[in-house]
């Protein structure tokens, strides 16, 4: 899972944002020849989305959202995203098992093709660590091909499974050095425009084993690889930051400063880890992510922008006790001081089974094209939701 960062500060003065979204259907025509076309067609019907932001809370199933709401606000249903008008439940299994990891979970969303655990945006003919499968075209590659600006942000290693599935293709999620180099050799367009993530030490070590490194890649491709957000000059409109830890809130706002200047629109993917093997850390990450999403929601125009929230897989956490006014994580401090590494964690009101689980995960949507999020569906349906919101056809 890698290291996690809890962002402590946010821009102030932000209340819960409530917004309505159009319920009219998204047109099915291909608008790739003119991505910046007006949102209203000649017939007066709503047109495609111009911008799409996908928020992925790693391991945040229904139970994690519920617990994060209680932790942060003292009540259920108090997260900003829980007020969004469109809700569905996404089934996340790979082709051969019931429980997904992040590689298959995110690859299915990005490509519309379920694969095997450990495989990054390749078909199920891949064998992890042994044989490549057919590369499956990602939503980010569709966006790059059509001239949109693109961005990928993660609290985790930028070459770890969830962010990697947006831009890379590999038979093993562990090959982070190989995965990272694919940022500089895109199959479509000029590659990801804004890249902000963690994992510098691990990626650097693997690059060294490949007889290359950050400096060498930067020189070969003319793209500096910065160690922090603060180091990026305002003049660089295609920045790459690979740090040890990442402030996802600042990174997202910095990315929007660049992406919102696009004349053709943009596609942004933001991941924040919400694994609850440490329940305090994971639930606080989810609460902070929700505050960030509310801030983004207040900044964008929902008439031409689709916001989606989901998780790549679920996790074994449940709230099974407690009363209003009581501390949700009562017993946490005592457990933390023991340093126990037991798989089953028993707090007063919360039970944690330290493993991924097979339950469906929530998908929440607001803005242009969000009405297609409804009911139960496989996670591959999100690929269709996003393509349809753009008005594009599959290759």
UniProtKB/TrEMBL annotation:
Name any cofactors this protein relies on: Mg(2+); Zn(2+)
| Matching InterPro entries | Alkaline_phosphatase, Alkaline_phosphatase_core_sf
Is Zinc among the key words of this record?
Answer: yes
Q: Which SMART domains match?
A: alkPPc
Which parts of the sequence bind Zn(2+)? 58, 275, 312-313
Which UniProt key words apply to this protein? Answer: Magnesium, Metal-binding, Phosphoprotein, Signal, Zinc
How cofactor binds (record note)?
Binds 1 Mg(2+) ion. Binds 2 Zn(2+) ions.
Q: Which residues bind Mg(2+)?
A: 58, 160, 162, 271
Protein family according to the UniProt entry = Belongs to the alkaline phosphatase family.
Name of this chain's protein: Alkaline phosphatase
Recorded source organism is Aurantiacibacter arachoides
């Amino acid at each position: 899972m890698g290291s996690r960062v809890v962002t402590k500060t946010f821009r102030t003065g932000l209340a819960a944002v409530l917004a309505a979204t159009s319920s009219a259907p998204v047109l099915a025509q291909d608008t790739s020849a003119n991505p910046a076309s007006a949102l209203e067609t000649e017939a007066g019907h709503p047109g495609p989305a111009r911008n799409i932001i996908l928020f992925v809370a790693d391991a945040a199933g229904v139970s994690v959202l519920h617990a994060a709401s209680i932790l942060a606000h003292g009540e259920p249903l108090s997260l900003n995203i829980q007020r969004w008008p469109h809700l569905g439940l996404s089934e996340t299994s790979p082709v051969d098992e019931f429980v997904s990891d992040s590689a298959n979970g995110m690859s299915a969303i990005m490509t519309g093709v379920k694969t095997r655990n450990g495989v990054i945006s390749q078909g199920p003919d891949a064998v992890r660590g042994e044989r490549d499968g057919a590369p499956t075209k990602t939503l980010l590659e569709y966006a790059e091909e059509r001239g949109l600006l693109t961005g990928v942000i993660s609290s985790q290693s930028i070459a770890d499974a969830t962010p990697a599935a947006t831009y890379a293709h590999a038979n093993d999620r562990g090959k982070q050095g190989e995965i990272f180099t694919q940022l500089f050799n895109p199959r479509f367009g000029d590659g990801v425009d804004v890249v902000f993530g963690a994992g510098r030490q691990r990626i650097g070590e693997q690059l060294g084993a490949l007889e290359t490194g950050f400096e060498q890649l930067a020189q070969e491709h003319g793209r500096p690889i910065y160690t922090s957000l603060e180091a990026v000059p305002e003049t660089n409109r295609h920045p790459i930051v690979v740090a040890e830890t990442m402030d996802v809130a600042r990174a997202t706002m910095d990315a929007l400063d660049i992406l919102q200047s696009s004349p053709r629109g943009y596609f942004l993917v933001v991941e924040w880890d919400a694994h609850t093997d440490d329940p305090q850390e994971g639930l606080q990450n989810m609460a902070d992510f929700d505050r960030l999403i509310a801030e983004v929601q207040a900044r964008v125009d929902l008439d031409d922008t689709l916001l989606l929230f989901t998780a790549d897989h679920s996790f074994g956490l449940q709230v099974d006790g407690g009363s209003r006014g009581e501390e949700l994580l009562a017993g946490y401090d005592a457990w933390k001081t023991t340093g126990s590494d037991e798989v089953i964690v028993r707090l007063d009101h919360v039970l944690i089974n330290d493993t991924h689980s097979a339950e469906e995960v929530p998908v929440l949507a607001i803005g242009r094209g969000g009405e297609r999020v409804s009911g139960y569906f496989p996670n591959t349906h999100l690929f269709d939701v996003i393509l349809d919101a753009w008005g594009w056809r599959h290759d």
